[in-house]
Amino acid sequence: MKRKTKWKQTLFTGLCITVVSEIYWNLFYDGLRISLSVVLFPVLIMTMDLETNTLWTGITSGGMIFVFRSAAAYVSGAGVIPAIQSALPGGLYYLFYSLLFFFLVQNKYMARFPRLIISVLCCDFISNMFENFLRNGFPIQKRRVFELLSVAVVRTILVGFILLLIERYRFLLTKKEHEQRYQRLFLMTAGLKNEIYFMKKNTEEIEEIMSNSYRLYEALSNQQVKLQTKEWALMIARDVHEIKKDYICIIRGLEQEVRNQYPEKEMWFSDILTILRDATYRMIESKHLNISLNFQYQHDFLTQAHYSVMLLLKNLVNNSVEAIALSEEKNHRKHRVDITEQLAGQTYQISVSDDGPGISEKNIPKIFQHGFSTKFDLENGNMFRGVGLSGVRSTVEEQFHGTIRVESQPNVKTEFHMEIPASALERGLR
């Protein structure tokens, strides 16, 4: 933390302590303030002022309290000397407290909770004794010692409780952040898996081009054509072969990276739906849409094909959200997107439906064609790639040996219905 920032933080802590110190009770005798600022002081030292020297925090807080109380007493009619005398013990209390805390807790980062609590108790009690001495001198009555110890114990319990709450809150924030990172990593990996799948399909086409080029070379070799023409055909076959090798190396590198970054081999269907729901709601929020999600499953199952299942559902759900976003009624009423799953015999029936604008009857036969799309980017007017639904059908039919169909009533309901053998999902074909 920069020095300027540290000073701002220290001044802010001093201001907080000064203000809260004016909330107090005189429980035992006049002059001894039982204030919640003594509870707040160690809490701020261990949280907001963790990187700041404890002595500077104590000097700043004590100095601000001394100035404030002296000024308040003077304004109330006390003389300069009486005002200083009444305010000085309170200011020195925080200086003495910070001095004790500095020696008892030398490394605030490494301080264990039991040691920290004992240190807070000692600082509170001894500092109270010190302030009592400044106000009343020696000897200190046994009853007064018991009263000061009781106050220190109660305030220390409050400090411990608050620190535990803060630690719990931080743990929950960290856990939530880790879960979000896990979800983003899983979605990114699923997307890479999808691209790798299409790249592998493209290698088959590259292989076909290379074979055709070589067959062309052989055909030209048996004909009376220029030697340069034959060499061109052979050169094309060689170049395509080199491209194929580089392509395969890229695919292997991506696959290795995916395995290293996300080694999970299986996942429950319910967890897939949870990740998809969270990601989709973030997407809905970013587009300022009024859409509710209703994801229900009848039979939870563990699958090794979690990437593929996520891609199927994510593509279909995203299509629904994007279609609603492009519709004229997106802000006129609340829309919904549903996922339902049930096991019928040895077949999983999974449906994704929405109440968006729907698909026109003439486009239904084309929607699974590679490159076909009715959506476009509103910012630049470019058409979408049109590989989402094509990939969905390829995954359902080629990887899972299932079927997919679509039914649509414009502005009423559009539903994609998939039937996949249970053995394919639960076994997790690759």
CATH superfamily of the largest domain: Histidine kinase-like ATPase, C-terminal domain
Q: Enumerate the spans where pLDDT stays under 50 for 5 or more consecutive residues.
A: 380-387
Described by strand count, sense and barrel closure, the largest sheet is: 5 strands, mixed
The top level CATH class name of the largest domain: Alpha Beta
Tally of structural domains: 3
Rounded to the nearest angstrom, the distance between the terminal CA atoms is 50 Å
Order of SSEs: HEEHHHHHHEHEEHEEHEEH
- Structural class, by secondary structure, is alpha+beta
The number of distinct helices, counting runs of at least 4 residues, comes to 11
Strand content: 5-15%
Q: What value does the average pLDDT take?
A: 81
CA radius of gyration is 36 Å
Dominant shape:
elongated
Number of strands: 9
Q: Can you tell me the CATH topology of the largest domain?
A: Heat Shock Protein 90
Strand order across the biggest sheet? 4-6-7-9-8
